[in-house]
Write the structure tokens for this entry.
Amino acid sequence: MSIRLAVLGDPLRYTRSPELHRAGCAALGLACESEALRTPVDALPATLERLAREGYAGCNLTMPLKEPALACVSRPSPAARRARSVNTITFSMDRGERGDRGVTLGDTTDGAGFLDLLAHEGRDPVHVRVVLLGAGGSARSLALAIAERGGEPVRVVSRREPEPGDAWGGALGERWSAWGSLAADRAVTQAQVLVNCTPLGDADLPRPRGGIAPGALVVDLPYGEAPSAWVIAARAAGLDAVDGLALLVHQARHSFRCWFDRDVPLEPLLAAARRSP
């Protein structure tokens, strides 16, 4: 039988996750069926119940489902609980004294995938200044992963102040700047790794008067059929820049560990990501 996987999101106009699912399973010697399912937030619980009932091994989640999914899984991982964000779900069975029952395991691979991306791009997360645009679930996952690796707290630039307390697990502290402020402008100018964790397009992203620091790495988490205008502009300025497809490849490796407890080689996933849809 083929392994059944899916990716859920809304509007989910463009995704490469099914191709990565099939490539990763092929590398493990597994047949795979994968599909992209447009899923509004209010349809998420019913969709997850259906996938479990129909025998899916797991699924990935993208915007805007990562934060709402935490309430939909029966067993969130410590990382997902800390980040209050879930992007990888595994459907499993609990074989206990009272008989078999379905279990939905939730994890986040955003942070671990981001650390792998930094390593692949020759950046050490312990020794770089990371600035995140946005304060949602993806941003928290990245910030917590950097903090747990031993890096300094990230700086966050967002329209709203990040929620206090353990939601950021000490990965932020007082390092927040309001969108459009002089402090935000200074933070972006000094960033060594600048990450857009929002769905905003190039026209809505900050444009620091001093420019982005030479040698900085620019990461745009959203991705589409072609590089975003923000990535293209960064490359034209001589900066290293990647979009969310690069992160997706590294996240996918961690998702496969969640689903099958096996490591997938990086190259088949990179090749699948490079192929034209």
